[in-house]
Design goal:
43% helix, alpha/beta
Length: 209
């Protein structure tokens, strides 16, 4: 499945863009949504939504409240950072369980791709903390980095693993063939939310070929 990442601030536009893919990741942080906007989008959408709110933009207390609000209003998935404190992780996970919302614990590395041993430790930590899905997004500096990321599917299920950057582009296409439940795409060239993302139209073309 293709999951489109949506960072737009207009809730009506957001709901319209959700229709462009199989599911959508709502970037609450980049959109600047308040509690009312979160409630409107997550209760109105007719496709599975991931609630994501990164710490770089929103303070922890507000972030937890916004994510829990999204869970309570229909989020199918909630994304929690690997680096988040155990207290934050467990508070959100406990709420997710009440609402049958699946938990994604995500690890992002914007400079490199760790060794296979390190990646296994990270993934195991995600699942031990209560993740339903572990998400690994690293940066590919060589083709071997991408191969290492795709090799993770030999050992894990319920995994979304990809490599960012030009050399990691292949992982965004190949991962679904190797067992990833979904992969990420951008709305368009101007609104990419991660390095190396393809647009949703490009992804649809790749899969049709």
């Amino acid at each position: 499945m293709i999951c489109v990442s949506i960072p737009v601030s207009n809730t009506d536009e957001c709901l319209e863009l959700i229709q462009s893919a199989d599911m959508a990741e709502i970037r609450i942080d980049m959109a600047g949504f308040d509690m009312n906007a979160v409630a409107h989008v997550f209760s109105s959408a007719n496709k599975p939504l991931i609630a994501t709110c990164r710490p770089e933009i929103v303070a922890d207390n507000d972030r937890v409240k916004l994510l829990i609000h999204a869970i309570q209003h229909g989020a199918a998935y909630v994304d929690i950072e690997y680096e988040a404190s155990p207290a934050i992780q467990q508070k959100i996970i406990a709420e997710a369980k009440k609402y049958t919302c699946k938990v994604i614990i995500s690890y992002h590395n914007y400079s490199t791709t760790p060794s296979t041993k390190e990646l296994h430790t990270i993934i195991d930590t995600c699942f031990n903390a209560g993740a339903d899905i572990a998400k690994i997004a690293t940066t590919a500096l060589t083709p071997n980095d991408s191969a290492r990321i795709l090799g993770l599917y030999d050992s894990y299920t319920n995994l979304v693993a990809l490599a960012m950057g030009k050399l990691g582009a292949i992982t965004r296409i190949a991962n679904c063939y190797l067992g990833s439940p979904f992969t990420f795409a951008a709305i368009n060239q101007e609104q990419k939310t991660a390095p190396g993302q393809f647009t949703v139209e490009e992804m649809k073309l790749f899969y049709s070929i």
